[in-house]
Design brief:
The protein is mostly beta strands.
Length: 83
C-alpha cells in the first residue's frame, strides 16, 4: 500500500484552532495557533493499513502520554481539539 503523507502544514478546519506541521515523514507536531505544543501524531504502517498514534506532551517536560491509535489523521487530530 502506498501512503501519501502531506508535507509541511496539514490543512485543518479553522474551528479546530490547531496547527499541524509535519516535522519528518510520518510525524506531525500539533500545537495551538499561538504556538503552544500539545503533542505529536505518528503514522504506523503495515502491509495493509495505516494507523495514526496520538501522544500528548506533559507541560514543558519531555514526558508523553498516549492518547490513542486511530484509523485516520483527522480522528487523531480530534483528540487534541479540547485540550
Amino acid at each position: 500500500m502506498q501512503l501519501t503523507i502531506p508535507r509541511t502544514r496539514a490543512a485543518l478546519p479553522a474551528h479546530y484552532e490547531l496547527d499541524a506541521v509535519e516535522v519528518r515523514d510520518g510525524l506531525w507536531r500539533i500545537s495551538t495557533l499561538s504556538g503552544t505544543l500539545l503533542g505529536h501524531i505518528s503514522v504506523q504502517t503495515d502491509e495493509a493499513d495505516a494507523k495514526f498514534v496520538a501522544t500528548r506532551m506533559l507541560g514543558r517536560t519531555p514526558r508523553r502520554v498516549p492518547l490513542g491509535t486511530f484509523w485516520s489523521l483527522d480522528d487523531a487530530i480530534q483528540c487534541f481539539v479540547r485540550i
